Amino acid sequence: MDAKKRVAVPSGWLQKKEGEEFYVLPHPGGEYLIVMPPGELMNWGPKFQARDGVSAAEMRTAERRFFAAAHRVATDSQGRILVPEEHCEPLGLKGPVVFIGGRNRFELWEKDRYARSMAQSDDSYRKIAEEIGL
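RE: above sequence
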C-alpha cells in the first residue's frame, strides 16, 4: 500500500485494467477488509432476512450497517484501487499488506495481523482439513 492508500490488485483478479469496480468494507470482526465486485455485494442482500433467534429489526440494522460501510472503488490505469482512509486507520493498514483470495472476493490484511491470525488458526485449520480429506 502506498502513501496515498492505493493497492495494486493482482492481475489475475482483474477482468480489465482500468475502471473495474469493487466494493471495500471492513469485516464485522474488525480484522481485515473485504473487497468484492458489485455482483457479489448484491448477493448479500437476500441473506439479510429474518432468521430464527434474530428479529427483523436486528436484521435491518445489520443490513444497513453492511451496505453503509461498503465503499465503491475503481481500478486506475495501473490496476490499483484507492482504499478509503476511514477503513485503513482502524485496521492499521499502511505499507505492506497481504491479499488473500476467496471465492468471489478477496481480503486485505495488515501484514503482522495476518501472520498472528494464521498462527492462531493452525490447529483448527489442520483439524478441518483432515475432516474434509484435504
